[in-house]
Amino acid sequence: MSQTPGPDARAVDRWIRRELAAHPPRARSLIVTLWGDALAPHGGEVWLSTLFALVAPFGHNERLVRTSVFRLARDGWLAAETRGRRSRYRLTSDGAHRFAQAYRRVYTPPFARWDGRWDVIVVPADALGASERRTLRDDLAWNGYATIAPNVHARPAAGGDARVEIGPKARVLRFVARDLPGSTQQSLAARAEDAWSLGTVAAAYRAFLARFAAVAAAFAARSALSPLQAFVVRTLLVHEYRRVRLHDPQLPEALLRPDWPGARAYALCRDFYRAAAPLAETHLASMVALEGEALKPALPEFYTRFTDAR
After folding, report:
1. Using CA of residue 246, residue 278, residue 51, residue 5, what is the dihedral sign?
2. Is there a contact between 283 and 235 (Cβ–Cβ < 8 Å)?
């Protein structure tokens, strides 16, 4: 005999319907989120039929999922294995590396330690070709550098993992600097809000908090919610948080306003993840079991997500 859902469960169902109607996730981007958040910790491979079942609650049909997975494979994220008429996909080594990079950006605490030093890169006008310059600029932005002057990029030193690829023949200068104490000139620290467009990032965090605060509170209250609801909400929450966090330069606390909303967004994700993870993992295991398999044990790193220790 099925149990009638309680008022909190019905409210979460309504929230899911509204969220998917107002902010429908693109299939490819959703699959990247789902793979990184749910599948990668459990071996990173899945039958295509299982992926269909996992994505179905988000409103994407099999044809769209198949097309998205094919493109991810074409772009080097996934590799396919065919067994008769069935297809199985797994992360490539490059795809696994990309997810590991995202892990460090999305699931770890904000506010890296900082001793006041700046990592500065100067790219003379003739050091690189136009295409190489654009690629380097994008790589630097991904790693938290801001353009502080023409051809000059900086970020707080030791603020994260900056494996920036610079051609060996490029005449690029890189050095560590500090703001000059007692100078009458404006310090780089004082320019942080404009240099890193922190107002835009803060607005995105506030929008995230407005969208997810109520539904996260339902899980924090340990309401009688279902594994499917937990999986769907967890995926949508991580999907949106990932989009915001990857645009956050993740500056040290000393460079941010005291009411920086990124700290509240992280705390919301941390508390939600702890409350919803057991149910969400139960749903994932049930979908994997449809193909007669058992869900592989999660990697140790899975249990350190959204913890307060680096």
Report:
1. negative
2. no
Query: How high is the mean pLDDT in each 10-residue block of the chain (310 residues)?
Result: 63 95 96 95 95 97 96 94 89 88 84 87 82 83 87 80 54 85 76 92 97 93 88 97 92 91 96 94 97 94 81
Distance of alpha carbon 124 from alpha carbon 21, whole angstroms: 48
Alpha carbon distance 237, 275 (integer Å): 13
Look at residue 82 and give its three-state secondary structure: strand
Rounded to whole angstroms, the Cα distance separating 268 from 39 reads 22
Residue 201: how many other CB atoms lie within 10 Å: 22
Tokens standing for residue 280: 């969400």
| pLDDT value, residue 1 | 38
* b/e sequence 260-272, b meaning 16+ C-beta within 10 Å: bbbbebbbbbbeb
Domain locations in the chain as residue ranges = 117-178
Q: Which helix (H) or strand (E) holds 122?
A: strand 117-122
Q: List, edge to edge, every strand of the sheet that includes 117-122.
A: 146-149, 152-156, 117-122, 173-178
User: Rg for the chain (alpha carbons), in Å?
Assistant: 22
With the C-alpha atoms ordered 301, 262, 38, 66, is the resulting torsion angle positive or negative? negative
d(CA 251, CA 206): 17
Is residue 260 helix, strand or coil?
A: coil
Assessment of whether the complete model's pTM goes beyond 0.85: yes
CA angle 189, 195, 197 (to 5 degrees): 120
Q: What is the pLDDT of residue 3?
A: 52
